[in-house]
Amino acid sequence: MKKTRILATGDFHGSSFLAEKLAKNAEEEQVDLVIICGDITHFGQECQNVIRPFMQRQKKVLFVPGNHDPINMADFLAEFYGVKNLHGYSITHNNIGIFGCGGAENLGPVNALSEDEMLYTIKKAHKGIENLERKILVTHMHPSNSKVEKLSGFSGSKAIRKAITEHKPELLLCCHIHELEGIEEMIENTKVINVGRSGKIIEF
User: Fold this and answer.
1) CA-to-CA distance for 136 and 19, rounded, in angstroms?
2) Domain boundaries, position 194
3) Where does 45-108 have alpha helices with state H?
């Protein structure tokens, strides 16, 4: 079966320049999916041109909101551009189940979730693809007891760590900690990638 090519990225914070650069990369690399791991806007501002460059190149976009993305803004982007907000939802692409949870655990300034809320959201999203063998979990935050947590000093999410154990995704894509973009590790049988602003091309 032909592999799915993914451009995974995040932490735009409203930069249309960055969105345009990444959209050109997506076109050049002939990716099948663009996955954005949150913080698309800066408190909901400057959101107009961060999705459009991908749409102009006819790329399929999936995203979760970050802790700088108000929920109403995420709903607007999904509806206006016809893209998929994975927060609490899932899709199937080439027999790959992709499910997501945005926001940050007890960390604002907006879209802060408790651990229980995050666990519920991930479980709800997973229900749609639970029978699939290959799965990708998309989050904004990194998991607890991860390399990113240890190197950055910023606590990770215990809920996301628990989701790795319970739902066994083959791949976890996150961002949030800009300084450590590109960090990869294995947690149990899940490959965890902090994709960051520069983006990461993944064949899955």
Assistant:
1) 23
2) 5-203
3) 52-56, 71-81
Q: In whole angstroms, what is the distance from residue 25 CA to residue 7 CA? A: 8
DSSP letter at 12? -
- Alpha-carbon gap, residue 1 to 7, rounded angstroms: 19
The model's pTM is 0.94
35 in helix, strand or coil?
Answer: strand
Q: CATH number for the domain including 52?
A: 3.60.21.10
**Tens-digit pLDDT profile for residues 6-47:** 999 999 888 889 999 999 999 999 999 999 998 988 765 556
Tally of structural domains, the chain? 1
Residue 3 DSSP code: P
Whether a cis peptide bond, with omega within 30° of 0, leads into 109 is: yes
